[in-house]
Amino acid sequence: MSVGLIAAATRQWDAVVIGAGPAGALEAALLARRGLAVLLVDKAHFPRPKVCGGCLNAAALAALQAAGVGDLPWQLGAEPLSRLQVSSRRRRATVSLRPGAGISRGTLDAGLVAAAITAGVVFLDGVRARAGLATDQGRPVHLSRGSEQVTVQARLVVVASGLGPLPVEDADQLPATVAPNARLGAGTSAPHAPPQVPPGVIVMMIGDGGYVGLVRVENGALNVGAAFDPEFVKAAGGLGEAAATLVEAADAPLIGNLLRSLRWRGTPPLTFRRRILARKRLFVLGDAAGYVEPFTGEGMAWALTGALALAPLAAAAATSWNEQLQRHWESEHARLVGRRRRLCRAVASGLRRPWLTALSLHLLRVLPQLAAPAVRAINAPPRRLVEL
């Protein structure tokens, strides 16, 4: 369902969700299914391109299944994924993954928003939102589209706005600490994947300044996600040149030429931590709740798992807020996401040492089963998801 800004301001909303990425769209749908009046807002016009690796790992697929939309990626034409091919310093190894899916964020996000609308959510795109200060009854949310500005009233606000500053007036009460060595995220796409990126395989190339991941998504298109040291991008002369330089060093000159020709998008620093994830009548969800460099779709699993875990707490908060809900959400988020992020942080640390990566690839070529414990840990859904 869609309404104009004026019409939105005439209603009392149980929940306003800011940000229509996977976490925000799924959260909105879950709350609407519980009978809440939900407004979902995003500053972009949908469908829209998004910087992301384009992978849903087994944990992310399990979260979608638990949310009742497990068939959605396949209905949208996702490509099945089963292997990871890693290259560094002219060494290469391939490991088996639990089944995943390759799908662009533009397609997936639009599909999740459509599912939310079907559940009864009202969606406004191309609208900027900023949550005001809390009252005993809720929070005002200021909306603007061009010269048009309105304020809506919400019993609860969920902020799933992704990386970057929070669109909240008391954001200083929700501070974030950026890691001093945080890399920049980058991404691009092409209508057709080259033969060097075979179906069913995530191709990952690691170098001194970062890494590039390539995967086939719906309709045989190419999705590219990368993480670079800022100094490496500056020295290379831009994101496209940085990607091309890195993959050419991994002995992939044809892919390098392709990446150099594409239009790239960047992100703020990837790795940051937010210790406080809630204030009165407000929860922070998804990438906005903290992030580290992800691995084979793990970032998507964090977002979707978090949305599932928050739904019952958010539904209760929309009825009657209490501080225990804040503490419960921070504890639950740490339990579901914290350990997995620590694992990805360890992997990311290893990727910053190409000599160590090259040695690991040599060992994996000889003993590919060495990768099995990490693959199981990254892809396994939290036990609680199976019970939802």
Structural commentary:
The chain is α+β, with helices and mostly antiparallel strands. The chain has a single domain (5-179, 270-387), classed as FAD/NAD(P)-binding domain, CATH 3.50.50.60. The protein is built from 13 helices and 19 strands. Strands 1, 2, 6, 7, 8, 9, 17 and 18 form an eight-stranded mixed sheet that branches. Strand 8 and strand 9 (148-159) form a beta hairpin. Helix 2 runs parallel beside helix 5, helix 2 packs parallel to helix 9 and helix 7 runs antiparallel to helix 8. The protein is globular and about 60 Å long. The chain starts with a helix and ends with a helix.
Topology:
Layout: H1 5-9, E1 12-18, H2 22-33, E2 38-42, E3 55-56, H3 58-66, H4 72-75, E4 79-88, E5 91-102, H5 105-118, E6 122-125, E7 128-131, E8 139-145, E9 148-159, E10 176-178, E11 184-190, E12 201-207, E13 210-216, E14 222-228, H6 230-236, H7 239-249, H8 253-261, E15 265-269, E16 272-274, E17 278-279, E18 282-284, E19 290-291, H9 298-319, H10 323-351, H11 354-366, H12 372-379, H13 383-387
Parallel strand pairs: 1-2, 1-9, 2-6, 4-12, 9-18
Antiparallel strand pairs: 3-5, 4-5, 7-8, 8-9, 10-16, 11-14, 11-15, 12-13, 13-14, 16-19, 17-18
Helix pairs in contact: 2-5, 2-9, 3-9, 6-7, 7-8, 9-10
